[in-house]
Structures are given as structure tokens and as C-alpha cells.
Amino acid sequence: MRAALALALLALAGAADAQRIWRCGPDGRLLQDRPCHDGEAMTVRDERPSASDEAAAREVARREMALAEQLRDERRAREREAVTAAAGFVEPEKPAVQSVLKKTPKKAPRKKKNRRD
Questions:
Q1: In the predicted model, what is the mean pLDDT of residues 7-24?
Q2: Domain span at 81
Q3: Which UniProt keywords apply (predicted)?
Q4: What's the N-to-C CA distance of the chain in angstroms?
Q5: What is the DSSP track for the chain?
Q6: In a domain, 2, yes or no
Q7: Looking at the structure, do residues 28 and 38 belong to the same domain, yes or no?
Q8: Which of 25, 57, 61, 86 sees the fewest Cβ atoms within 10 Å?
Q9: Is residue 104 assigned to a domain?
Q10: pTM for this model (two decimals)
Q11: Measuring CA to CA, which residue among 6, 32, 37 is closest to residue 19?
């Protein structure tokens, strides 16, 4: 959104309605305001947004800022709740190990097998 607003402001800052520029260089990536030997002339128009477009862009920016503030406040509230919950955390009681062992039947010892060498 900031990029769109910046482009709108740059468009407002332009002085001429149409300008002639030249695309130069082997791949045409160099743009300049005077002719070059291998260049191609182009006409660039300064198309400024209408007043209604500017007003719509400002309204969108205002709504996005309000939404960002709302989301920030919600995040901060969740973080406060998480800190409060973490501070009040109590470990659950550990089960009594002996009661579990008493209920477990013991296995009979294994008999050793005789090996013949």
C-alpha cells in the first residue's frame, strides 16, 4: 500500500504531460532523456490519478492502518494472557510408582538351557 501511495505522489510531482525518452544499450535497459546512437525513442505520459482515485487510495490506507492497529492490540492481549498463564502453571502430580508396581504380577524366572559343547 505504501508503494501505491508513493507512486501516486510521484505522479503528482511530474511536470510535463508527455516526455520523450530513449531506451539505449545492447539490451535496452538504459533509459535516458537524450538520443543515443543505438536507442529507440519512447513517449512517456504523466498520467496522474483523479481526485476520486486519490481519495479511494487514502481510504484504503486508513482502513489498513486501523486493521493493523486492531491486530496489534489483539496480539498484545494474547501475549499478556500467555505470560499470565505461564506464570500460574503448576506441574501435575506424579503417579505413585509403588502402586503401579504392586499391581504388576511378577514373571517366573527363566530356566537356563543346558548347552552341550
A1: 64
A2: 50-86
A3: Signal
A4: 87
A5: -HHHHHHHHHHHH---SEEEEEEESSSS-EEESS--TT-EEEEEE--PPPHHHHHHHHHHHHHHHHHHHHHHHHHHHHHHHHHHHHHT--PPPPPPHHHHHHHSPPPPPPPPPP---
A6: no
A7: yes
A8: 86
A9: no
A10: 0.39
A11: 32
Count of positions (residues) in the chain: 117
Task: Tell me how many domains the chain contains.
Answer: 2
Q: 21 pLDDT band (50/70/90 cuts)?
A: confident
**Cα–Cα distance between 23 and 41 in angstroms, integer?**
6
Amino acid residing at 59: E
Q: Does the residue 96 lie in any domain?
A: no
Tell whether 77 and 54 lie within a shared domain. Answer: yes
Tell me, what amino acid is at 67?
A: L
